[in-house]
Amino acid sequence: xxxxxxxxxRRISQLLFFLVFFxxxxxxxxxxxxxxxxxxxIQLPYPVSIALEFSPLxxxxxxxxxxxxxxxxxxxxxxxxxxxxxGKFFCxxxxxxxxxxxxxxxxxxxxxxxxxxxxxxxxxxxxxxxxKYYLFFILIGAALMGVLQIGLFDPLSFLARSIGxxxxxxxxxxxxxxxxxxxxxxxxxxxxxxxSVYDTIAPAILTFRKAHFHTIITIGTFFLAVLVMNRIxxxxxxxxxxxxxxxxxxxxxxxxxxxxxNAATCDNCMKCAAHCQGADGPEVTEKWRQSExxxxxxxxxxxxxxxxxxxxxxxxxxxxxxxxxxQKIDITRRKTIASVAGGLALFPLFRSSDGFxxxxxxxxxxxxxxxxxxxxxxxCIRCGQCMRVxxxxxxHPTLFEAGLEGMWSPIMxxxxxxxxxxxxxxxxxxxxxxxxxxxxxxxxxxxNTPPNRVGTAFIDRSRCLPWAMARPCIVxxxxxxxxxxxxxxxxxxxYDSNGNPVEVKQPYINPDLCTGCGACEYACPVIDKxxxxxxxxxxxxxxxxxxxxxxxxxx
Amino acid sequence: MExxxxxxxxxxxxALAAITGGTGxxxxxxxxAHYSVPAVKKTSFSIAPDSSFPQIALAExxxxxxxxxxxxxxxxxxxxxxxxxxxxxxKPNVGWDRAPSQAADxxxxxxxxxxxxxxxAGASSVIVSDISCNDPRRxxxxxGIREAAERAGANVILPTDEDFITIDLKGEILTAWPVxxxxxxxxxxxxxxxxxxHSLSSCTIAMKNLYGILGGPRNRLHQSIDQSIxxxxxxxxxxxxxxxxxxxxxxxxxxxxxxxxxAIQNSVICATDQVAADARASEFLGLxxxxxxxxxxxxxxxxxxxxxxxxxxxxxxS
Lengths: 555, 318
Prior knowledge:
Chain A has 23 helices and eight strands. Chain A is mainly alpha-helical and 555 residues long. In chain A, strand 6 (487-495) and strand 7 (501-509) form a beta hairpin. Chain A is elongated and about 105 Å long. Chain B folds into two domains: 1-30; 41-316, Rossmann fold.
């Protein structure tokens, strides 16, 4: 195989994995075309979160945090084991965020300052590249204590979250705006053309219900920053930040595959350095850094004298003046220990703050099937798949509701969408078991099984129409899905502003029955601040967060 | 400064000032409010009364499709209601994500049979649609209505924002309101409700089922539920009302959930008088129609006969 072929293979591989990743997120979506035969257990046709299960960082982090390697996370060995022998092929050939960074870094522009000597200089190893190792150690230290922050930086979680909760909803909004712009002229041929184009692309790209996510400006800004940094430093994220890259770098320490340099034929043209993606020193005058190399093969491709080869068991002491032996990873033992210690310290820092067990925020209504909060925080990688798949747009990323520790973890905001009693999709897509997959029966309950509860509803009598305004309403009771209904009514005579008696039915909550689904809050006509609202108390997953002493009836 | 320069500079400044000022004045808006409503379309789908047929018939049969056919034949058969080439819209109740046995949505067997009958009578197209409360995809799927209607050849439409038009309903409560266009832009409208208990309106049967053609802030209508139901019934009286009383939801309506709340009645009512249909069907729930606010109000408004026997009620028991 020639070098050209190998480089083209790498390009195809990058494109393919990127498209597969994007497609899987598109398919993390409740679609209409299910056959009626399996109505009782509606499931997604593809394992849409499988891409996330290939991250060794997610597997290792969740393993350290909760002691288990959840279901499909074993797939990550498919990446990790070959990395031990080959080096960081994942970064250069597979990682969709790496690919995106690669494209944006190399995207040609007249104004791009990285040209000629400047480009060579920018591709020299810089000391900022060691940040990723220390970040990795901080995250590992935190994970050891059950504080799982790796999801914020894991490239697969990061990209899934950014695409699912920011890019795709933005795309939806943009498509709608363009369509209504063309229709605003009121010229029928143009309107129908615009609509037919829209109708053609909509089923493939857009969700059935347009999503509006809480606090995604923070996610979007982070994503935008990572993309923009590529224009200043080639693959800034990959070189400097990515803790998965750091982990794979550490694991490739004993790799048997590597770069062999032939100083005899090299004429120091430096073309290899000019095209290097990893800033790993491919030129003869530098020591090659295996832990930084993403195996993009650009150095081989650009070398006019074939002085460079990738091979098994390379001769690492080839160059006479400066041996091209592999550099050790540029980290010190002291700083590594300090980083781990810093990560460990995050645990008491987060947990001695309020908001976790003491004074928790009532709006932290976790998805149905979520495990208890300490385990939840040891599993959730904030990939946003549950938010993306929720057909009702009920699940949203938090900002600080669940503390800084739980940033971007999912909560339900019933005002935007409630939890459908028969739906179990969020548990189905969760890659780490933070949300367990419930069966239909476990979710909705039956004669012998208690339903899964996420909270309890409360009536705000100062805003409720029959309570405060002498008007009939009871929309909440109509929407209440439990049987018998959680919301019960009592007829009462109240008086309007003229002193005339009005017969109204006033709603009450039966806490024995409420599952906290939020349908009442969603449907309440007092739309700005609903007169019936749900808070997390009564949730099945918690022993402490309860109101009533003993439930009447089933569970 | 040269004279030429002076003229050039001043000229450019004046031109920019003129453009700026002109733009401001050109787009200056003197209106205080915008309120426009499209012209009202024909919305009454009712057909001329024919004294040779009763206005309401009830058939009971464990074979629900057969019950529908018998009741419909008593009213003159499908050919009286659907003429060849006509477009038909069927409005079942597909409000909730429930299975047929739970009696929250119209029996899919009846919907499928109705679609088949319409095509047999020569309908050019049959649309089945509703504005569900729960996720419409789940509602149409779990209720079995999507499958039954599509198998019979109907076009099942889950509404999107594009499908609404704002119309002046000219009611006392309902004025300008977004309406699902398929219920207005059609030749024949067949209302296919199911009989359910409702805590505010006592029951939700035929006239209340028309709520499902409305978009907008429907949840506010409860504040004047009787008048808004009657407004709708006046706005678009259907060609035919087919009441599904095969399973009746006695409690926990309109959503139900427990099979303990369902009473098996195996009955189908066909009617050209929607008030009479509501009056008869409300008896399944143990109600007296005179005591049901919206039925009494509709009768008072001259929409139909609350004494369904006076409408030539015919009962066909198996």
